[in-house]
Write a structure and sequence with these properties.
The complex is a heterodimer. By secondary structure, chain A is mainly alpha-helical. Chain A has one domain: ABC transporter involved in vitamin B12 uptake, BtuC. In chain A, about 70% of the residues lie in helices and about 0% in strands. A two-stranded antiparallel sheet of chain A has the order 1-2. The longest helix of chain A has 27 residues, at about 210-235. Chain B is an alpha/beta fold. Chain B folds into two domains: about 1-80 and about 170-255, P-loop containing nucleotide triphosphate hydrolases (Rossmann fold, 3-Layer(aba) Sandwich), CATH 3.40.50; about 95-165, no CATH class. Chain B has nine helices and ten strands. In chain B, the strands form two sheets. In chain B, strands 6-7-8-3-9-10 form a six-stranded mixed β-sheet, sandwiched between helices. A four-stranded antiparallel β-sheet of chain B has the order 2-1-4-5, with helices on one face. The longest helix of chain B has 14 residues, at about 150-165. Chain B is globular. Chain B starts with 5 loop residues before the first strand and ends in a 9-residue tail after the last helix. The relative contact order of chain B is 0.17. Classes of the chains: A mainly alpha, B alpha/beta. The interface between A and B is medium-sized, with 26 and 39 residues.
Protein backbone atom coordinates (compact mmCIF):
# COMPACT_ATOMS: atom_id res chain seq x y z
CA UNK A 1 0.00 0.00 0.00
CA UNK A 2 1.35 3.41 -0.94
CA UNK A 3 1.02 6.29 1.45
CA UNK A 4 -0.55 9.32 -0.17
CA UNK A 5 1.08 12.74 0.22
CA UNK A 6 -1.95 14.36 1.78
CA UNK A 7 -1.63 17.39 4.04
CA UNK A 8 -2.55 15.21 6.97
CA UNK A 9 0.15 12.63 6.26
CA UNK A 10 2.73 15.38 5.87
CA UNK A 11 1.73 16.89 9.20
CA UNK A 12 1.75 13.48 10.88
CA UNK A 13 5.20 12.64 9.49
CA UNK A 14 6.63 16.00 10.50
CA UNK A 15 5.07 15.63 13.93
CA UNK A 16 6.65 12.20 14.41
CA UNK A 17 10.08 13.47 13.33
CA UNK A 18 9.66 16.55 15.49
CA UNK A 19 8.61 14.52 18.54
CA UNK A 20 11.50 12.09 18.14
CA UNK A 21 14.02 14.94 18.04
CA UNK A 22 12.75 16.94 21.02
CA UNK A 23 15.44 15.52 23.39
CA UNK A 24 18.12 16.42 20.84
CA UNK A 25 16.80 19.96 20.79
CA UNK A 26 16.79 20.03 24.59
CA UNK A 27 20.42 18.87 24.70
CA UNK A 28 21.35 21.44 22.06
CA UNK A 29 19.85 24.44 23.85
CA UNK A 30 20.77 23.01 27.23
CA UNK A 31 17.25 23.56 28.56
CA UNK A 32 14.70 20.87 29.41
CA UNK A 33 11.66 23.12 29.50
CA UNK A 34 10.32 22.14 26.08
CA UNK A 35 11.03 18.44 26.65
CA UNK A 36 9.14 18.46 29.95
CA UNK A 37 6.20 20.21 28.33
CA UNK A 38 6.15 17.74 25.44
CA UNK A 39 6.40 14.78 27.85
CA UNK A 40 3.23 16.06 29.48
CA UNK A 41 1.62 16.41 26.04
CA UNK A 42 2.54 12.82 25.15
CA UNK A 43 1.05 11.46 28.37
CA UNK A 44 -2.18 13.41 28.05
CA UNK A 45 -2.32 12.41 24.38
CA UNK A 46 -2.42 8.76 25.48
CA UNK A 47 -5.34 9.63 27.74
CA UNK A 48 -7.06 11.56 24.93
CA UNK A 49 -6.57 8.69 22.46
CA UNK A 50 -8.19 6.33 24.97
CA UNK A 51 -11.11 8.72 25.46
CA UNK A 52 -11.48 8.99 21.70
CA UNK A 53 -11.86 5.22 21.49
CA UNK A 54 -15.09 5.35 23.51
CA UNK A 55 -16.23 8.86 22.57
CA UNK A 56 -15.21 9.20 18.93
CA UNK A 57 -15.66 5.62 17.78
CA UNK A 58 -18.09 4.31 20.36
CA UNK A 59 -20.29 7.38 20.87
CA UNK A 60 -19.89 7.14 24.65
CA UNK A 61 -19.27 10.70 25.85
CA UNK A 62 -17.68 10.10 29.24
CA UNK A 63 -17.32 13.16 31.43
CA UNK A 64 -15.33 11.22 33.98
CA UNK A 65 -12.36 9.92 32.08
CA UNK A 66 -9.82 11.77 34.24
CA UNK A 67 -10.81 9.45 37.10
CA UNK A 68 -8.63 6.82 35.44
CA UNK A 69 -5.74 9.26 35.24
CA UNK A 70 -6.09 9.74 38.98
CA UNK A 71 -6.50 6.05 39.83
CA UNK A 72 -3.48 5.11 37.73
CA UNK A 73 -1.49 7.85 39.43
CA UNK A 74 -2.61 6.87 42.92
CA UNK A 75 -1.69 3.22 42.34
CA UNK A 76 1.86 4.35 41.53
CA UNK A 77 1.94 6.88 44.37
CA UNK A 78 0.52 4.59 47.04
CA UNK A 79 2.74 1.65 46.08
CA UNK A 80 5.81 3.89 46.08
CA UNK A 81 4.80 5.25 49.49
CA UNK A 82 4.32 1.72 50.84
CA UNK A 83 7.76 0.68 49.67
CA UNK A 84 6.92 -1.08 46.40
CA UNK A 85 8.74 1.01 43.79
CA UNK A 86 8.88 -1.67 41.08
CA UNK A 87 7.27 -0.52 37.83
CA UNK A 88 6.71 -4.15 36.92
CA UNK A 89 4.17 -4.23 39.74
CA UNK A 90 2.99 -0.60 39.70
CA UNK A 91 2.13 -0.22 36.04
CA UNK A 92 0.26 -3.49 35.44
CA UNK A 93 -1.61 -2.98 38.71
CA UNK A 94 -2.57 0.56 37.67
CA UNK A 95 -3.95 -0.84 34.41
CA UNK A 96 -5.77 -3.75 36.06
CA UNK A 97 -7.36 -1.64 38.80
CA UNK A 98 -8.52 0.91 36.24
CA UNK A 99 -10.00 -1.97 34.24
CA UNK A 100 -11.94 -3.21 37.26
CA UNK A 101 -13.20 0.30 38.12
CA UNK A 102 -14.16 0.86 34.47
CA UNK A 103 -16.05 -2.43 34.49
CA UNK A 104 -18.09 -1.36 37.51
CA UNK A 105 -18.73 2.18 36.23
CA UNK A 106 -19.50 0.87 32.75
CA UNK A 107 -21.92 -1.81 33.90
CA UNK A 108 -24.03 0.82 35.62
CA UNK A 109 -23.64 3.84 33.38
CA UNK A 110 -23.86 2.13 29.97
CA UNK A 111 -27.51 1.42 30.69
CA UNK A 112 -28.11 5.12 30.10
CA UNK A 113 -27.71 7.23 26.98
CA UNK A 114 -26.77 10.73 25.96
CA UNK A 115 -26.93 13.38 28.64
CA UNK A 116 -27.66 10.80 31.32
CA UNK A 117 -24.49 8.93 30.44
CA UNK A 118 -22.50 12.16 30.64
CA UNK A 119 -23.97 12.94 34.06
CA UNK A 120 -23.53 9.47 35.54
CA UNK A 121 -19.89 9.21 34.45
CA UNK A 122 -19.33 12.68 35.91
CA UNK A 123 -20.94 11.55 39.16
CA UNK A 124 -18.74 8.46 39.39
CA UNK A 125 -15.63 10.51 38.71
CA UNK A 126 -16.59 12.98 41.43
CA UNK A 127 -17.11 10.11 43.87
CA UNK A 128 -13.61 8.85 43.11
CA UNK A 129 -12.31 12.40 43.43
CA UNK A 130 -13.72 12.63 46.95
CA UNK A 131 -12.31 9.21 47.83
CA UNK A 132 -8.92 10.64 46.87
CA UNK A 133 -9.57 13.71 49.04
CA UNK A 134 -10.30 11.51 52.03
CA UNK A 135 -7.16 9.36 51.81
CA UNK A 136 -5.58 11.02 54.84
CA UNK A 137 -2.70 8.54 54.95
CA UNK A 138 -1.79 9.59 51.42
CA UNK A 139 -2.00 13.35 51.78
CA UNK A 140 -5.77 13.80 51.24
CA UNK A 141 -6.40 17.11 49.42
CA UNK A 142 -2.74 18.07 49.57
CA UNK A 143 -1.70 15.08 47.54
CA UNK A 144 1.18 12.68 47.76
CA UNK A 145 4.75 13.34 46.73
CA UNK A 146 6.44 10.46 44.93
CA UNK A 147 10.09 10.34 45.89
CA UNK A 148 11.16 7.59 43.53
CA UNK A 149 9.98 7.11 39.99
CA UNK A 150 8.96 3.56 39.03
CA UNK A 151 11.92 1.18 39.07
CA UNK A 152 12.50 -1.24 36.23
CA UNK A 153 15.31 -3.34 37.71
CA UNK A 154 18.01 -1.35 35.98
CA UNK A 155 16.51 -1.90 32.53
CA UNK A 156 15.09 1.60 32.31
CA UNK A 157 16.13 4.56 34.35
CA UNK A 158 13.06 6.78 34.40
CA UNK A 159 14.86 9.37 36.50
CA UNK A 160 16.55 10.33 33.25
CA UNK A 161 14.22 12.82 31.59
CA UNK A 162 15.35 11.67 28.16
CA UNK A 163 14.66 8.00 28.87
CA UNK A 164 11.29 8.88 30.36
CA UNK A 165 10.50 11.01 27.33
CA UNK A 166 11.16 8.15 24.93
CA UNK A 167 9.20 5.71 27.09
CA UNK A 168 6.19 8.05 26.87
CA UNK A 169 6.64 8.48 23.13
CA UNK A 170 6.88 4.72 22.59
CA UNK A 171 3.81 4.07 24.70
CA UNK A 172 1.85 6.72 22.79
CA UNK A 173 2.87 5.08 19.51
CA UNK A 174 1.86 1.68 20.89
CA UNK A 175 -1.48 3.07 22.05
CA UNK A 176 -2.20 4.56 18.63
CA UNK A 177 -1.27 1.27 16.96
CA UNK A 178 -3.52 -0.65 19.34
CA UNK A 179 -6.48 1.71 18.86
CA UNK A 180 -5.94 1.67 15.08
CA UNK A 181 -6.12 -2.12 15.02
CA UNK A 182 -9.08 -2.20 17.40
CA UNK A 183 -11.25 0.28 15.52
CA UNK A 184 -10.72 -1.54 12.23
CA UNK A 185 -11.26 -5.02 13.66
CA UNK A 186 -14.54 -6.88 13.94
CA UNK A 187 -14.81 -5.53 17.47
CA UNK A 188 -14.26 -2.00 16.20
CA UNK A 189 -16.94 -2.36 13.54
CA UNK A 190 -19.35 -3.56 16.21
CA UNK A 191 -18.52 -0.51 18.33
CA UNK A 192 -18.96 1.89 15.41
CA UNK A 193 -22.22 0.26 14.46
CA UNK A 194 -23.49 0.68 18.00
CA UNK A 195 -22.63 4.39 17.86
CA UNK A 196 -24.25 4.80 14.47
CA UNK A 197 -27.52 2.96 15.16
CA UNK A 198 -27.80 0.77 18.22
CA UNK A 199 -31.35 -0.32 17.56
CA UNK A 200 -30.32 -1.62 14.17
CA UNK A 201 -27.37 -3.44 15.70
CA UNK A 202 -29.70 -5.35 18.01
CA UNK A 203 -32.03 -6.10 15.13
CA UNK A 204 -29.24 -7.74 13.13
CA UNK A 205 -28.17 -9.80 16.12
CA UNK A 206 -25.58 -7.89 18.14
CA UNK A 207 -25.69 -7.91 21.94
CA UNK A 208 -24.40 -4.33 21.93
CA UNK A 209 -24.08 -3.86 25.69
CA UNK A 210 -21.19 -6.29 26.15
CA UNK A 211 -19.20 -4.79 23.27
CA UNK A 212 -19.68 -1.25 24.52
CA UNK A 213 -18.73 -2.37 28.03
CA UNK A 214 -15.51 -4.05 26.89
CA UNK A 215 -14.65 -0.94 24.87
CA UNK A 216 -15.21 1.21 27.96
CA UNK A 217 -12.94 -1.07 30.00
CA UNK A 218 -10.15 -0.99 27.38
CA UNK A 219 -10.27 2.82 27.33
CA UNK A 220 -10.14 2.93 31.13
CA UNK A 221 -7.11 0.65 31.19
CA UNK A 222 -5.20 2.70 28.63
CA UNK A 223 -6.00 5.86 30.57
CA UNK A 224 -4.78 4.14 33.73
CA UNK A 225 -1.41 3.67 32.07
CA UNK A 226 -1.42 7.39 31.21
CA UNK A 227 -2.13 8.07 34.89
CA UNK A 228 0.85 5.97 35.97
CA UNK A 229 3.02 7.94 33.54
CA UNK A 230 1.63 11.26 34.72
CA UNK A 231 2.41 10.46 38.36
CA UNK A 232 5.97 9.57 37.37
CA UNK A 233 6.23 12.75 35.35
CA UNK A 234 5.09 15.16 38.05
CA UNK A 235 6.45 12.96 40.88
CA UNK A 236 3.25 13.89 42.64
CA UNK A 237 -0.37 12.82 42.69
CA UNK A 238 -3.37 14.61 44.17
CA UNK A 239 -7.15 14.52 43.76
CA UNK A 240 -6.81 17.52 41.42
CA UNK A 241 -5.62 15.08 38.73
CA UNK A 242 -9.14 13.68 38.55
CA UNK A 243 -11.14 16.84 39.05
CA UNK A 244 -14.02 17.15 36.58
CA UNK A 245 -12.27 20.01 34.82
CA UNK A 246 -9.48 17.53 33.94
CA UNK A 247 -12.11 15.30 32.32
CA UNK A 248 -13.31 18.38 30.48
CA UNK A 249 -9.80 19.06 29.23
CA UNK A 250 -9.63 15.55 27.78
CA UNK A 251 -12.95 16.05 25.99
CA UNK A 252 -11.69 19.37 24.62
CA UNK A 253 -8.55 17.68 23.29
CA UNK A 254 -10.59 15.05 21.47
CA UNK A 255 -13.09 17.51 20.02
CA UNK A 256 -10.45 20.08 19.11
CA UNK A 257 -8.25 17.51 17.37
CA UNK A 258 -11.05 15.55 15.74
CA UNK A 259 -13.39 12.96 17.20
CA UNK A 260 -13.26 9.53 15.66
CA UNK A 261 -9.93 10.09 13.94
CA UNK A 262 -6.75 8.27 14.86
CA UNK A 263 -4.41 11.22 15.27
CA UNK A 264 -6.99 13.86 16.16
CA UNK A 265 -6.64 13.47 19.94
CA UNK A 266 -2.83 13.75 19.69
CA UNK A 267 -3.15 16.96 17.69
CA UNK A 268 -5.76 18.15 20.18
CA UNK A 269 -3.52 17.48 23.18
CA UNK A 270 -0.63 19.23 21.47
CA UNK A 271 -2.62 22.30 20.47
CA UNK A 272 -4.45 22.65 23.77
CA UNK A 273 -1.36 22.38 25.97
CA UNK A 274 0.80 24.59 23.74
CA UNK A 275 -1.98 27.19 23.62
CA UNK A 276 -2.36 26.96 27.37
CA UNK A 277 1.38 27.50 27.78
CA UNK A 278 1.60 30.34 25.24
CA UNK A 279 -1.59 32.17 26.18
CA UNK A 280 -1.09 31.91 29.92
CA UNK A 281 2.22 33.75 29.36
CA UNK A 282 0.23 36.59 27.78
CA UNK A 283 -2.59 36.89 30.25
CA UNK A 284 -3.93 35.30 33.35
CA UNK A 285 -7.32 35.07 31.62
CA UNK A 286 -6.04 32.94 28.75
CA UNK A 287 -9.21 30.86 28.68
CA UNK A 288 -11.00 33.92 27.31
CA UNK A 289 -9.00 33.40 24.12
CA UNK A 290 -9.22 29.61 24.17
CA UNK A 291 -13.01 29.59 24.51
CA UNK A 292 -13.89 31.38 21.26
CA UNK A 293 -11.22 29.37 19.47
CA UNK A 294 -12.87 26.14 20.57
CA UNK A 295 -16.28 27.50 19.56
CA UNK A 296 -14.96 28.29 16.10
CA UNK A 297 -13.61 24.75 15.70
CA UNK A 298 -16.85 23.15 16.85
CA UNK A 299 -18.97 25.41 14.64
CA UNK A 300 -16.91 25.50 11.48
CA UNK A 301 -14.74 22.37 11.51
CA UNK A 302 -16.79 19.41 12.58
CA UNK A 303 -13.89 17.00 12.15
CA UNK A 304 -11.68 19.17 14.34
CA UNK A 305 -8.18 20.18 13.31
CA UNK A 306 -7.63 16.73 11.83
CA UNK A 307 -10.73 17.26 9.71
CA UNK A 308 -9.30 20.54 8.41
CA UNK A 309 -6.11 18.75 7.40
CA UNK A 310 -7.91 15.87 5.71
CA UNK A 311 -10.42 18.19 4.11
CA UNK A 312 -13.36 16.11 5.27
CA UNK A 313 -14.65 14.23 8.21
CA UNK A 314 -12.42 11.25 8.64
CA UNK A 315 -14.06 7.92 9.44
CA UNK B 1 -49.73 -29.96 7.87
CA UNK B 2 -46.29 -29.34 9.35
CA UNK B 3 -45.93 -27.18 12.43
CA UNK B 4 -46.06 -23.50 11.53
CA UNK B 5 -42.75 -21.63 11.62
CA UNK B 6 -44.20 -18.65 13.46
CA UNK B 7 -47.08 -19.05 15.89
CA UNK B 8 -48.76 -16.04 17.45
CA UNK B 9 -51.16 -16.95 20.25
CA UNK B 10 -53.52 -14.56 21.94
CA UNK B 11 -51.12 -11.64 21.76
CA UNK B 12 -52.35 -8.50 23.54
CA UNK B 13 -50.65 -5.18 24.09
CA UNK B 14 -52.15 -2.20 25.88
CA UNK B 15 -50.87 1.36 26.08
CA UNK B 16 -52.87 2.90 28.89
CA UNK B 17 -56.47 2.74 27.70
CA UNK B 18 -55.58 1.92 24.11
CA UNK B 19 -55.54 -1.71 23.06
CA UNK B 20 -52.99 -1.87 20.23
CA UNK B 21 -53.06 -5.64 19.92
CA UNK B 22 -56.24 -7.41 20.93
CA UNK B 23 -55.90 -11.17 21.29
CA UNK B 24 -54.08 -11.61 17.99
CA UNK B 25 -53.54 -15.21 16.87
CA UNK B 26 -51.86 -16.15 13.62
CA UNK B 27 -49.97 -19.15 12.27
CA UNK B 28 -47.48 -18.67 9.51
CA UNK B 29 -46.38 -21.81 7.72
CA UNK B 30 -42.89 -22.50 6.47
CA UNK B 31 -42.51 -21.14 2.96
CA UNK B 32 -45.58 -18.96 3.15
CA UNK B 33 -45.73 -15.27 2.27
CA UNK B 34 -48.23 -13.90 4.68
CA UNK B 35 -49.32 -10.28 4.34
CA UNK B 36 -50.85 -8.14 7.05
CA UNK B 37 -52.92 -5.22 5.94
CA UNK B 38 -55.02 -2.74 7.83
CA UNK B 39 -55.74 0.96 8.01
CA UNK B 40 -53.38 3.38 9.75
CA UNK B 41 -53.44 2.90 13.49
CA UNK B 42 -54.60 -0.70 13.22
CA UNK B 43 -51.63 -1.87 15.30
CA UNK B 44 -49.46 -3.36 12.57
CA UNK B 45 -46.23 -1.79 13.76
CA UNK B 46 -47.02 -2.70 17.38
CA UNK B 47 -47.51 -6.29 16.30
CA UNK B 48 -44.18 -6.33 14.42
CA UNK B 49 -42.42 -4.81 17.45
CA UNK B 50 -43.69 -7.68 19.60
CA UNK B 51 -42.46 -10.20 17.06
CA UNK B 52 -39.00 -8.63 16.96
CA UNK B 53 -38.84 -8.25 20.74
CA UNK B 54 -38.75 -4.47 21.00
CA UNK B 55 -42.07 -4.56 22.83
CA UNK B 56 -43.16 -7.17 25.36
CA UNK B 57 -46.82 -8.18 25.12
CA UNK B 58 -49.15 -7.96 28.12
CA UNK B 59 -50.51 -11.39 27.29
CA UNK B 60 -50.01 -14.17 24.81
CA UNK B 61 -47.11 -16.04 23.29
CA UNK B 62 -44.90 -15.97 20.23
CA UNK B 63 -43.29 -19.23 19.10
CA UNK B 64 -40.68 -19.41 16.42
CA UNK B 65 -39.66 -22.84 15.13
CA UNK B 66 -41.42 -24.34 18.14
CA UNK B 67 -39.45 -22.24 20.65
CA UNK B 68 -41.25 -19.75 22.87
CA UNK B 69 -39.54 -16.41 22.18
CA UNK B 70 -42.04 -14.14 23.95
CA UNK B 71 -39.38 -12.91 26.41
CA UNK B 72 -36.34 -13.26 24.12
CA UNK B 73 -34.39 -10.02 23.47
CA UNK B 74 -34.19 -8.70 19.88
CA UNK B 75 -30.57 -9.70 19.19
CA UNK B 76 -31.23 -13.30 20.17
CA UNK B 77 -34.30 -13.49 17.96
CA UNK B 78 -32.12 -12.37 15.09
CA UNK B 79 -29.62 -15.09 15.95
CA UNK B 80 -32.48 -17.62 15.91
CA UNK B 81 -33.18 -16.64 12.32
CA UNK B 82 -35.91 -14.02 12.57
CA UNK B 83 -34.81 -11.03 10.47
CA UNK B 84 -36.59 -7.76 9.97
CA UNK B 85 -36.60 -4.61 7.91
CA UNK B 86 -37.74 -1.31 9.34
CA UNK B 87 -40.67 0.80 8.20
CA UNK B 88 -38.60 3.94 8.66
CA UNK B 89 -35.19 3.27 7.15
CA UNK B 90 -32.77 2.20 9.88
CA UNK B 91 -29.22 1.76 8.63
CA UNK B 92 -25.71 2.93 9.57
CA UNK B 93 -25.60 6.24 7.70
CA UNK B 94 -21.91 7.00 8.30
CA UNK B 95 -20.67 3.63 7.02
CA UNK B 96 -20.47 2.33 3.47
CA UNK B 97 -23.08 0.09 1.87
CA UNK B 98 -20.81 -2.92 2.09
CA UNK B 99 -19.94 -2.12 5.74
CA UNK B 100 -23.62 -2.05 6.56
CA UNK B 101 -24.31 -5.47 5.15
CA UNK B 102 -21.00 -6.93 6.36
CA UNK B 103 -21.99 -5.96 9.91
CA UNK B 104 -25.14 -8.03 9.51
CA UNK B 105 -23.00 -10.96 8.34
CA UNK B 106 -20.58 -10.42 11.22
CA UNK B 107 -23.38 -10.55 13.79
CA UNK B 108 -24.00 -14.14 12.76
CA UNK B 109 -20.37 -15.21 12.36
CA UNK B 110 -19.59 -15.93 16.01
CA UNK B 111 -18.61 -13.42 18.65
CA UNK B 112 -16.96 -10.14 17.70
CA UNK B 113 -14.30 -10.06 20.41
CA UNK B 114 -11.66 -10.04 17.69
CA UNK B 115 -9.49 -7.01 18.12
CA UNK B 116 -6.64 -7.25 15.65
CA UNK B 117 -7.46 -8.42 12.13
CA UNK B 118 -9.00 -5.92 9.79
CA UNK B 119 -12.71 -6.57 9.36
CA UNK B 120 -12.82 -4.77 6.00
CA UNK B 121 -10.28 -7.22 4.54
CA UNK B 122 -12.16 -10.23 5.85
CA UNK B 123 -13.57 -12.09 2.85
CA UNK B 124 -15.63 -14.26 5.18
CA UNK B 125 -17.64 -11.09 5.86
CA UNK B 126 -17.35 -9.20 2.59
CA UNK B 127 -18.30 -11.99 0.17
CA UNK B 128 -21.62 -12.96 1.78
CA UNK B 129 -22.37 -9.23 2.08
CA UNK B 130 -21.80 -8.74 -1.67
CA UNK B 131 -24.03 -11.73 -2.39
CA UNK B 132 -26.85 -10.24 -0.30
CA UNK B 133 -26.51 -6.91 -2.11
CA UNK B 134 -26.63 -8.65 -5.48
CA UNK B 135 -29.75 -10.46 -4.38
CA UNK B 136 -31.66 -7.19 -3.91
CA UNK B 137 -30.14 -5.63 -7.02
CA UNK B 138 -27.97 -3.09 -5.23
CA UNK B 139 -24.82 -3.53 -7.30
CA UNK B 140 -21.85 -1.25 -7.85
CA UNK B 141 -22.61 0.84 -4.78
CA UNK B 142 -20.41 -1.03 -2.31
CA UNK B 143 -18.29 1.94 -1.28
CA UNK B 144 -21.04 4.57 -1.27
CA UNK B 145 -21.64 6.21 2.10
CA UNK B 146 -25.14 5.17 3.04
CA UNK B 147 -26.18 8.62 4.22
CA UNK B 148 -25.77 9.96 0.68
CA UNK B 149 -27.97 7.39 -1.08
CA UNK B 150 -31.51 7.67 -2.36
CA UNK B 151 -34.55 6.53 -0.45
CA UNK B 152 -35.17 3.63 -2.81
CA UNK B 153 -31.62 2.39 -2.35
CA UNK B 154 -32.06 2.59 1.42
CA UNK B 155 -35.09 0.34 1.15
CA UNK B 156 -33.09 -2.20 -0.85
CA UNK B 157 -30.27 -1.99 1.66
CA UNK B 158 -32.73 -2.70 4.48
CA UNK B 159 -33.65 -5.98 2.86
CA UNK B 160 -30.05 -6.88 1.98
CA UNK B 161 -29.14 -6.46 5.67
CA UNK B 162 -31.96 -8.76 6.67
CA UNK B 163 -30.87 -11.37 4.11
CA UNK B 164 -27.25 -11.17 5.23
CA UNK B 165 -28.24 -12.59 8.62
CA UNK B 166 -29.14 -15.85 6.81
CA UNK B 167 -32.62 -15.86 8.32
CA UNK B 168 -35.31 -18.53 8.32
CA UNK B 169 -37.95 -15.86 8.20
CA UNK B 170 -38.24 -12.23 7.10
CA UNK B 171 -40.43 -9.65 8.80
CA UNK B 172 -40.79 -6.84 6.29
CA UNK B 173 -42.40 -3.71 7.72
CA UNK B 174 -43.69 -1.67 4.79
CA UNK B 175 -40.72 -2.23 2.51
CA UNK B 176 -42.36 -0.14 -0.23
CA UNK B 177 -42.99 2.88 1.99
CA UNK B 178 -42.22 6.09 0.14
CA UNK B 179 -41.24 4.36 -3.10
CA UNK B 180 -42.23 5.48 -6.56
CA UNK B 181 -44.20 3.11 -8.85
CA UNK B 182 -41.10 1.97 -10.77
CA UNK B 183 -39.15 1.20 -7.60
CA UNK B 184 -42.12 -0.60 -6.12
CA UNK B 185 -42.49 -2.76 -9.20
CA UNK B 186 -38.83 -3.69 -9.05
CA UNK B 187 -39.11 -4.57 -5.37
CA UNK B 188 -42.13 -6.78 -6.09
CA UNK B 189 -39.95 -8.70 -8.53
CA UNK B 190 -37.23 -9.04 -5.88
CA UNK B 191 -39.69 -10.21 -3.25
CA UNK B 192 -41.17 -12.74 -5.65
CA UNK B 193 -37.69 -14.23 -5.95
CA UNK B 194 -37.11 -14.16 -2.18
CA UNK B 195 -40.43 -15.85 -1.60
CA UNK B 196 -39.01 -19.04 -3.06
CA UNK B 197 -36.39 -19.28 -0.32
CA UNK B 198 -37.84 -17.58 2.73
CA UNK B 199 -40.92 -17.52 4.87
CA UNK B 200 -42.06 -13.89 4.82
CA UNK B 201 -44.39 -11.81 6.92
CA UNK B 202 -45.14 -8.68 4.92
CA UNK B 203 -46.80 -5.60 6.35
CA UNK B 204 -47.63 -3.31 3.47
CA UNK B 205 -49.96 -0.53 2.39
CA UNK B 206 -49.41 -1.06 -1.32
CA UNK B 207 -52.45 -3.20 -2.21
CA UNK B 208 -51.19 -4.06 -5.69
CA UNK B 209 -48.03 -5.49 -4.18
CA UNK B 210 -49.87 -7.37 -1.45
CA UNK B 211 -52.34 -9.03 -3.78
CA UNK B 212 -49.58 -9.83 -6.27
CA UNK B 213 -47.35 -11.52 -3.70
CA UNK B 214 -49.30 -12.90 -0.77
CA UNK B 215 -50.24 -16.52 -0.29
CA UNK B 216 -52.51 -15.52 2.55
CA UNK B 217 -53.60 -12.19 3.95
CA UNK B 218 -54.68 -11.15 7.43
CA UNK B 219 -56.61 -7.96 8.02
CA UNK B 220 -55.94 -6.06 11.22
CA UNK B 221 -58.44 -3.45 12.43
CA UNK B 222 -58.25 -1.76 15.84
CA UNK B 223 -55.73 -4.36 16.99
CA UNK B 224 -57.92 -7.32 16.06
CA UNK B 225 -57.54 -9.78 13.21
CA UNK B 226 -60.92 -9.56 11.52
CA UNK B 227 -60.13 -11.97 8.70
CA UNK B 228 -57.42 -14.32 7.47
CA UNK B 229 -57.58 -16.02 4.12
CA UNK B 230 -56.50 -16.36 0.52
CA UNK B 231 -56.27 -13.10 -1.44
CA UNK B 232 -59.54 -13.77 -3.26
CA UNK B 233 -61.36 -14.51 -0.01
CA UNK B 234 -60.11 -11.27 1.49
CA UNK B 235 -61.04 -9.28 -1.59
CA UNK B 236 -64.60 -10.57 -1.37
CA UNK B 237 -64.99 -10.55 2.40
CA UNK B 238 -67.87 -8.27 3.33
CA UNK B 239 -66.50 -7.35 6.75
CA UNK B 240 -63.13 -6.44 5.29
CA UNK B 241 -64.74 -4.35 2.58
CA UNK B 242 -66.73 -2.44 5.12
CA UNK B 243 -64.01 -1.98 7.72
CA UNK B 244 -61.05 -1.38 5.53
CA UNK B 245 -61.63 -0.92 1.85
CA UNK B 246 -64.71 1.16 2.54
CA UNK B 247 -66.90 2.35 -0.29
CA UNK B 248 -64.05 3.49 -2.45
CA UNK B 249 -62.84 1.07 -5.05
CA UNK B 250 -59.17 1.65 -4.23
CA UNK B 251 -57.53 2.86 -1.07
CA UNK B 252 -53.91 3.80 -0.86
CA UNK B 253 -52.33 5.08 2.30
CA UNK B 254 -48.80 5.17 1.00
Amino acid sequence: MTVALTPRNIVVTLTVIGLASVPLYAAWVGNNFVMILVTRILILAIAAVSLNLIMGYGGMVSFGHAAFLGIGGYVVGILAYEGIPSGFIQWPLAIIICGIVALIIGMLSLRTRGVYFIMITLAFAQMIYYVGSSLSRYGADDGLTIYRRSQFAGLLNLSSKVVFYYVCLALLALTILLVWRIVNSRFGMAIRGARSNERRMRAIGFPTFRYRLVCFVIAGMICGLAGALLANHTEFISPAAMHWTRSGDLIIMVVLGGMGSLFGPVIGALVLLVLEEALSGLTEYWQIILGPLLLAIVLYARGGINGLLVGQRHG
Amino acid sequence: MAEPLLQIEGLSKRFGGIIASNNVSLDIATGELHAIIGPNGAGKTTLIAQLTGELTPNAGHVRFGGVDITQTPPFRRSLLGLARSFQITSVFPDLTVLDNVALAVQAHAGHSFRFWRKARRDTALREPARAALARVGLIGRDEAIVGTMSHGEHRQLEIAMALATRPRMLLLDEPMAGMGPDESARLVTTLRELKKDYTILLVEHDMDAVFALADRISVLVYGRVIATGLPDEIRNNAEVKQAYLGDETRVSHA
